[in-house]
Structure to design on (78 residues):
């Protein structure tokens, strides 16, 4: 696997949607290639920051409460 191939699969790698055979190749590449290892570490760190601050994901009950309060507000204004 080349760096370009790895970078094109990196999103899938983080999503956990790569096939097992490809995952082995990715891990082999990461052992051999310091550059891609750094990219992975940096990206993982960034993802963790986003998760900690819940930028993308709201907890399920909070999301439902938010949606129902928005819906209630819409009904009042009609
Ligand atoms: Zn590489």
């Amino acid at each position: 696997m080349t760096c370009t191939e790895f970078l094109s699969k990196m999103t899938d790698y983080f999503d956990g949607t790569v096939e097992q055979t490809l995952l082995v190749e990715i891990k082999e590449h990461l052992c051999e290639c310091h550059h891609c290892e750094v990219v992975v570490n940096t990206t993982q760190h960034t993802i963790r920051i986003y998760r900690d601050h819940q930028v993308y994901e709201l907890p399920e009950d909070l999301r439902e409460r938010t949606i129902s309060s928005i819906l209630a507000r819409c009904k009042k204004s009609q």
Summary: The chain has one domain: 3-77.
